[in-house]
Amino acid sequence: MSAELSLRELSAPGRGAIRVLELAGPGALERVAALAPASRLVAGAFAPVRLCDARGELLDEALVVVASPERVELHLHGAPALVARVVRELGRVEPASAGASLEERAAARLAEAASEAAARMLLDQAEGALRAELEALLARRGDDFLGAARELARRGRIAQRLVQPPRVVLAGPVNAGKSTLFNLLVGRERVVVDAAPGTTRDAVRERVQLGAYAVELYDTAGERELAPAESPEVEGAGQALAAELRRTADLVLWLVPPGAALPPPAARQRVLASRADLEPRHGSLQSMLPSLSVLRAPEEARRRVEEELHAALELPREPWVPGTGVPFEREWSERLAADGPAELVRAARAWLGAR
Predict the structure, then answer these.
(1) Has residue 106 been placed in a domain?
(2) Res. 278: pLDDT tops 70
(3) 319, CA 20 to 30 Å: which among 238, 261, 297, 328?
(4) Separation of alpha carbons 220 and 295, rounded Å
């Protein structure tokens, strides 16, 4: 097994309902496909799969996202023992960028930068901005030291949204305008739009640019009751995939067309009144929601989605100040946000000394 194949966790380490692992490097897709012999995994695919060990015993029913043959994400259920079994079955994999310097780590990530802003930020770090920031941090004392560390953590939290594009899922009932909005944000007719209920039966993904941030945008099957004559096994599978994507999304934009009920509250969900050009909603609960009309005001609809992204994920419009140091690895940001001074001094020295 080549040491170039690496594994890192994209979700916060520790316990959680969902754990997201990324396997990257030559042979990544083949390695994951070996755990899912009943599934056909190809670049660009994302689907629920059954992961099995070498004996054929079930490890987990996971969501697999194949960004490319050399980068695959595994969205696992969060039990630590289960995750550990999957990691063992993947075989010998080096931790991502093990032993590399700060500058080497940044340069390695630069090749797959998701946006111009991400590339510029990583280029600054490859040229020594983070090293200079950490050296200045170690020269501070007392509250000044801790305040500077927390500020670095804040920058790092935002940087994570640059280097790892957030997942934004468009959801809602049938005929809510999800596919129309998806096409607008993608910038072309990526999916078929039709008034017939259930036109979208699968999920479609595209990377799009919303302001300075790239996002992985998903259009999903609409929610409705299915009659036996309507091929419920096909559309039902699409609805099940939509539910799984909502569960692992960073942000769900639930569209409510005229006459539709509001969804129950959910974490990481923002509700928008869609198709605002059809009829007035004065006096209804929908009239209190932020609204958009893709057909009547497309640029306003795009602006509304950008605003919801910034507000929900607490993202500034300008993600970083050029030339400043930014901790671009999730673990570094988490430690800078939570550790005490003594632990942070040791960690910063270790980061500076890595080769």
Answers:
(1) yes
(2) no
(3) 297
(4) 20
